[in-house]
Amino acid sequence: MTAPASAVPMSAPRRSSGIGHTLRLGFWRIGYEVRGYFRQGDSVFFTFLFPLVMLLIFSVAFSAQTFGAPGDEISAAAFYLPGMVAAGLLLSGTQNMALDIATERSDGTLKRLGGTPLGPVAYFIGKLGMVLVTGLLQSALLIAVAALAFGVALPTDPMKWVTFGWVFLLGVTTCAILGIGLSSLPRSGRSASAVVIPIVLVLQFISGVYIQFSTLPAWLQGVASIFPLRWLAQGMQSVFLPESFASMTPSGTWEHGLIVLVTGIWLVAGLVLARVTFRWIRKDG
């Protein structure tokens, strides 16, 4: 999604000073970013609908297969749902944010925004808000389709939904911040897809989204455990899968504390990277 040249129209809050003005401008920007996002067909498909398409494919392809121990089996749709929700956070956050900002930098949008009252803080409030809104809508759509179309039983324990809430918020924030940092890697908007998409795709395959994590080689599990998607997938699995599935993890437990620790480290690293690398204009451009 790329903002047009008139990135701050006349309806935006006027120039003033203080944190209140920045917040007002940032919250106005959220609506602007969300509207722009859903007007871009490629962004909607490859970041918003892609996890849903993959859930449908896996659910139909493995519809005759069950997962889990005898007496605690679940359908393919139920098994793949948490991984697809976690992958959606990575796509809506990291992939979409990185491609979006890299394109806006390449086509001069960021340069023009740099001369407006918007400011970097308000700009990123808009971006983060857009990712939060689209990520929430995407998760709701995935859960609704799984429940209504495939009969997946949703959690009835309120604490499961509390876990979903903090894993979702931590995950979507971390993925979005990492997307900001990653946006500085492509040298142009034209090369952004070639740089960002392979990284995101590989992480999905090694993090337990498409392949059961316990079946991967030990060394590959170790590599995947460095990155946040593996932990976000496990956090979502702790919400939607029966407790017996915890035995399939390397430690035999859901490790909520480690999920917070690893993802939190990436969140801090992403904030530092975004602070150091973000520029309205590339220095080498």
Question: Rg from C-alpha positions?
Answer: 20 Å
* Overall pLDDT score: 89
Count the beta strands. Answer: 2
Largest sheet: 2 strands, antiparallel
> Numbering strands along the chain, what is their spatial order in the largest sheet?
1-2
Distance between the termini: 21 Å
SSE arrangement, N to C:
HHEEHHHHHHHH
Count of discrete structural domains: 1
User: Which geometry do the CA atoms define?
Assistant: elongated
Low-confidence stretches: 1-7, 9-15
How many alpha or pi helices? 10
| Percentage beta strand | under 5%
Structural classification: mainly alpha
Fraction of residues in H or I helices? 55-70%
Structure in words:
There is one protein chain. The chain is an all-alpha fold and about 280 residues long. The chain has one domain (about 20-275). About 70% of the residues lie in helices and about 0% in strands. A hairpin with a 6-residue loop joins strand 1 and strand 2 (about 75). Helix 3 packs antiparallel against helix 5 (about 120-150) and helix 3 (about 75-105) packs antiparallel against helix 7 (about 190-205).
Question: How would you concisely characterize the structure shown here?
Answer:
The protein is mainly α.
Based on the model shown, name its key terms.
285 residues; mainly alpha; two-stranded antiparallel ribbon; 68% helix; 1% strand; elongated; disordered N terminus
What's the topology here?
Blueprint: H1 19-38, H2 41-61, E1 66-67, E2 74-75, H3 76-106, H4 109-113, H5 119-150, H6 158-182, H7 189-206, H8 218-224, H9 228-240, H10 256-277
Antiparallel strand pairs: 1-2
